[in-house]
């Protein structure tokens, strides 16, 4: 009984963490239009970038492939999950060096292509994690699947959008953090968007290793 309880807790933790990572990247993607607005992007440019979210609308088209094609040695989930996370990590790691420049110069086409690819990978990971969570909890408590998804995506989205936008802002951190602590004002927030992405990459790498 204790063993089953420990396994349930471990399964919940793993699935929630995977959903949190998805939510963080999804939150980051939804934050980019706000950065584009701050750099005076036109409506046409904003509209072009909005194409990046479409993979989530059409993931049903390749979901059967992910569910049916896999390497038996690694299993249905690890065949897709580990490579997807590693590829996302590599893309984000490279992007962390160039994102600010792409935003400042309004390189919309390049931004759209990169984030479209990231969103495509995240949508594919969502298929894998959804299927995995259903299998994990089907014999115990099927409701845990949707609970883990709701908690993970909500927390991840909050981190990837609200936390990022708030603490990356120099105005907020100067007024509500540095002033009360008698620290001098700075032109940047507690961290940059590049540092935030690097942190996300490190966590994705750790999860893939596990």
UniProtKB/TrEMBL annotation:
One annotated GO biological process: acetyl-CoA transmembrane transport
GO cellular component labels: membrane
GO molecular function (one): acetyl-CoA transmembrane transporter activity
Membrane topology annotation: Multi-pass membrane protein
Subcellular location, principal: membrane
Keywords: Membrane, Transmembrane, Transmembrane helix
Location relative to the cell: Membrane
Transmembrane segments: 7-36, 80-99, 111-129, 149-167
Protein name in the entry: Acetyl-coenzyme A transporter 1
């Amino acid at each position: 009984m204790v063993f089953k309880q420990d396994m349930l807790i471990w399964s919940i933790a793993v699935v929630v963490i995977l959903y949190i990572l998805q939510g963080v990247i999804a939150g980051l993607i939804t934050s980019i239009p706000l950065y584009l607005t701050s750099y005076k992007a036109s409506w046409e440019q904003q509209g072009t970038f909005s194409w990046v979210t479409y993979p989530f609308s059409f993931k049903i088209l390749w979901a059967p492939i992910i569910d049916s094609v896999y390497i038996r040695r690694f299993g249905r989930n690890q065949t897709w999950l580990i490579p997807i996370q590693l590829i996302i990590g590599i893309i984000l790691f490279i992007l962390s060096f160039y994102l600010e420049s792409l935003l400042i110069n309004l390189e919309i086409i390049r931004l759209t292509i990169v984030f479209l690819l990231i969103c495509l990978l995240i949508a594919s990971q969502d298929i894998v994690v959804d299927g995995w969570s259903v299998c994990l909890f089907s014999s115990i408590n099927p409701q845990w699947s949707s609970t883990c998804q709701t908690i993970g995506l909500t927390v991840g989205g909050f981190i990837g959008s609200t936390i990022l936008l708030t603490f990356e802002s120099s105005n907020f951190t100067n007024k509500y953090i540095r002033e009360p602590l008698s620290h001098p004002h700075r032109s940047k927030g507690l961290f940059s968007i590049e540092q935030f992405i690097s942190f996300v990459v490190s966590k994705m790498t750790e999860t893939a290793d596990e």
